[in-house]
Amino acid sequence: MDARLDMFEDVNTSPSLEGDMSIPGKRTTTTTTAQHGVPEYNTLDEPIRETVLRDMRAVGIKFYHVLYPKEKSSLLRDWDLWGPLVLCTFMATILQGSSSADSMSDNGPEFAQVFVIVWIGAAIVTLNSKLLGGNISFFQSVCVLGYCLTPVALSLIICRIILLSTQTRFLFFLRFVTTTLGFAWATYASFIFLGQSQPPHRKPLAVYPIFLFFFIISWLVLSHN
Amino acid sequence: METPTTDDLLQFRDYSATNSGTPAQINVNSPTHATVGGSGSGSGGNSNAQRQRGDPLSDLIYDMSNSAQTIIGGGGPAGGSGAPADGAAGGARLSFLTMEYYQQFFNVDTYMVLERIVNSMIPKRAAANYLRMNIGENPDLYGPFWITVTLIFSIAISGNIASYLQQANDSYHWHYNFHLVSYAATCIFLYANILPAVLWALFKYSLKPVDEADAIETDSASYTPSLLSLMCIYGYSLAIYIPVSILWVINISLLQWLLVITAAMLSGTVLIAVLTPALRNSKYSLFLIIGILGAHIILAAGFLLYFFHSPPEAALAAKPTSAPPLLKDALQKLSTQAVAGDLPPGNITG
Asked: Is the distance from CB of A138 to CB of A194 less than 8 angstroms?
């Protein structure tokens, strides 16, 4: 208790050097940010567990918003790339062709190919909407596109479970339906989030690349066997 | 310019440089900025600055007639100079590092893109001056880029479905071939970028010397397109292969070849018709026509042979990446033709 950092902005409010680290507004605002993008909470004196949990909760809330696309602002306002990174790594790990088993006939994509398709694809789609004159920042759009992969990733998990049994035509049909549902869901969610950023006469031009992006990834999911 | 008069407050500024979209721009200056605006108009046209400024109305008429002359005189040769910055409608040159510089290539609306796609499929639909008035005025890269990307994936996906259907009845455990995407991407991007560049260079190289007698006729009917216009036209001309590549899944050889010929003829005819003003200007127009049509048909045939006629499984197991022998023969034949028929080399890479 002898030497402590003083975190107050205004020196006049604390005449002595001794004081506690509590900042007004620390407990009330957890995930929101101030107008200038500076977090209002103070993260110096909290346990690491709390920090990690708070960030994970923010990521989880975004997953929820994608699966239930009603409220737009949270996904667009505080973007992060953790969710996209997790989803993309997960999908690329599952989708990569097994080179060890029988390398002759398995011509699936490499890990890096899936990874690059997702990230470069999202970047190109975003760049396209920027070039068409959309008023959305680059990482906001990449964040939304990445998080909107959630339904596709879910359909990938279901397909993977279906693939454990012996394949019949009915099971293929089931996989097809699952993937189509995931694709439609992802496209719809990203349209809800990104559709407003374009002028109306160019909206189809901006939506088509998003459609194509999810279509390609869904194709990868469906044809994975 | 010491005391701002009425014509300094409301003045027309004209750009004698390559302005294709908005010829005149109203510049309403506040009195404090009057000198800046005046010097700007002085750089725009010398005669304009040294002219005695009197009546605002006569000034306005003078400036408008000036800019009209700029359009009439500078429209043809300026449009053909080939620099991508020709499309800059604002008159001011933008740095190529800014987003706005690239936004001018994406300055299209939905109906415009659809119109261009339809025009690239149906012959005789576009007007005679389509190249100059429509494409040349506002060449976009949106359509070409996304048509190419769509074509790459539609060919890769349909090729996989076709091979699945061909092998579905056997007990063979089917695996999809992701590498088709890489091959399709390589050959389509090469076709859509290198061929326009070669064509552009050939147009430049083989420009007919203009006679004094033909000067008027040449000015009105012929037009050398910029590189960007050529890339735009070529990108749109690939659009017809997207539905065709989906139809190629139907494994009937006659139907597939019929589709190849129909598609290549339709969009090749449009290419020739659209490029007629430029071809008329060239010394080797016959060779160029043969080259354009030949490259288009060969591209379609190459797609069909490589992506849809699956090689026998033994050959696939032995060398999964090598081209089927039929295609190799076709390519060898092609390369000899290319030397003979003055084909651009871009199409052989498929």
From this structure: no
Structure tokens at B9: 């407050």
Report the alpha-carbon distance of residue A114 to residue A149 in Å, rounded: 13
Nearest to B106 among A132, A203, A223 (CB): A132
For chain B, the domains span: 6-79, 106-349
Q: Compute how many other C-beta atoms are within 10 angstroms of the C-beta atom of residue A90.
A: 14
Asked whether B14 and B62 are in contact (CB, 8 A), the reply is no
Q: Does A101 touch chain B (CB under 8 A)?
A: no
C-alpha to C-alpha distance for A29 and B48, rounded to whole angstroms: 63
pTM of the entire structure?
0.68
**What are the pLDDT digits (tens) for A123-159?**
999 999 888 888 888 888 899 899 999 999 999 999 9
Q: How far is B50 from chain A (nearest CA, A)?
A: 40
Q: Which two tokens stand for residue A114?
A: 């899936």
Q: Which residue has the tokens 């080797």?
A: B284
Of residues A107, A130, A212, nearest to B178 (C-beta): A107
- Up-side HSE of residue A52: CA atoms within 13 Å toward CB? 3
State the nearest Cα–Cα gap between A201 and chain B, in angstroms: 6
Q: Tokens standing for A186?
A: 């992802």
Expressed in percent and rounded to 5, the helix, strand and coil fractions of chain A are 60, 0, 35
How far apart are alpha carbons B238 and B121 in whole angstroms? 9
Residues within 8 A of B (CB atoms), A 12-71 only: none
Which ipTM value was assigned to this complex?
0.75
Domain boundaries, chain A: 72-223
Residue A6 identity (one-letter amino acid) = D
Helix (H, G, I), strand (E, B) or coil at B245: helix
d(CA A151, CA A153): 5
Chain B residues with beta carbon closer than 8 angstroms to that of A212: 146, 149-150, 153
- SS3 for A86? helix
> How confident is the model over A44-92, as pLDDT tens digits?
778 888 889 988 898 888 888 888 887 666 677 778 888 899 999 999 9
- Partner residue facing B157 (CB), from A107, A208, A219: A219
List the single residue in B with minimal CA-CA distance to A169: B168
Counting one residue from chain A and one from chain B, the pairs whose CB atoms sit within 8 A come to 63
Instruction: Give the three-state DSSP class for B25.
Output: strand
Average pLDDT over residues B60-75: 46
A56 burial type by CB count under 10 A (0-12 exposed, 13-18 middle, 19+ buried): exposed
Range list of β-strands (E), chain B? 10-14, 24-28
Q: Which residue in A107, A201, A202 is closest to B320 by CB distance? A: A107
**Which residues, in sequence order, are bridge partners of residue B27?**
B11
